[in-house]
Amino acid sequence: METSDPQEIVLKTQGLSKKFGERWAAKDLNLEVHRRDVFCFLGPNGAGKSTTIRMILTLLMPTAGSIEIFGKDLYRHRSEVLSRVSGIVEKADFYLYLTAYKNLEILGSMTYAVQRGEIMESLEVVGLKSRAFEKVKTFSHGMKQRLGIAQALLTRPELIILDEPTAGLDPQGMKEVRDLIKRLSRERGMTIFLSSHLLAEVELVATRMAVIHHGALIAQGPVSELLSREANDFSIQVTPLPLAVQLIGRLPWVRILSAENGQVEARIEPGRSSELNRFLVTNHVEVFSISPHRTLEDFFLKITEGASEI
Q: Are the C-beta atoms of 233 and 264 separated by less than 8 Å?
């Protein structure tokens, strides 16, 4: 797989819209997904996530707008572009009375003459190599989801699109899929676009995200950056702690809540956490991290209720 600048835009939509009758399922979406992102497309059920994914995979024609993948117009270069993309919409379906291996052999052959080694490698990546020759009817829901990702990996894609990959899974199944997604990004350099309405899952796996509500894009950017906006309470890891406490105590816009074990818990006026970081570093305090306490749930509820200008 080619190595590229992580700032390279792999997927870009401009004004992407879809109308069903009088209802806009998606309207004027401008998305940017960078190489190696684990990009979460977040929104409540019915927000337009699956409609958008279907347009990106050419399963639906847009009413308006454009889609570029790897810098090329999707509809002008459809075959070339989609040869580098794999996607699972909603859930993967399999022949339950056939083995995992046989399912991948059949499904893979619809694209090209898939080899035994490629099937076994895909199964190994998703942790199912030892179950390759067992019937899929014996698999848990989480194992079937991972088998679906194994199917997507057969073509060695650079971009994988997953529609609600943890929907309906128990906590262990969620963890298995989440860990797999992170490994595909970290170890194989894949770009992963996934939709979800599960806030906690997104916070654990995503590097960047976009939030859609009633078909409209209302926020987009790095997860850490979006959560930092308008946050008040922060955990600050520093050394030396006594000097940091002394310096912070001089600032009228910061209130120390606690300080112990190299960590300061503080309430900072919105928008001034970067200023505090610069102040401490300038005064010879080493700052390891400044982490907002604001959760993704706080962020999501605030912007979808229209209480925040983002």
A: no
Q: Return residue ranges of the chain for CATH 3.40.50.300.
A: 9-221
- Is it the case that residue 305 has pLDDT exceeding 80? no
**What are the residue ranges of helices labelled H in 17-70?**
49-56
Residues 6 or more apart in contact with residue 81 via CB below 8 angstroms: 69, 70, 72, 74
Task: Kindly report, residue by residue over 144-164, the tens digit of the pLDDT.
Answer: 999 999 999 998 999 999 998
Whether 64 has a pLDDT exceeding 90, the answer reads yes
**How far is CA 293 from each of CA 1, 104, 154, 233, 266, rounded to the nearest angstrom?**
38, 44, 40, 6, 10
Tokens of 172: 């262990």
Label residue 308 exposed, middle or buried (CB < 10 Å: 0-12, 13-18, 19+): middle
Record the tokens describing residue 80, joined without a space: 């070339």
Burial grade of 74 (CB within 10 A; 0-12, 13-18, 19 or more): buried
Three-class DSSP category at 171: helix
Q: Using CA atoms, how far apart are residues 215 and 108, in angstroms rounded to an integer?
A: 34
Q: Which of 3.40.50, 1.25.40, 3.90.320, 3.30.70 is the CATH number of 231-293? A: 3.30.70
Fold of 9-221: Rossmann fold (3.40.50)
Cβ–Cβ under 8 Å, residues 86 and 165:
no
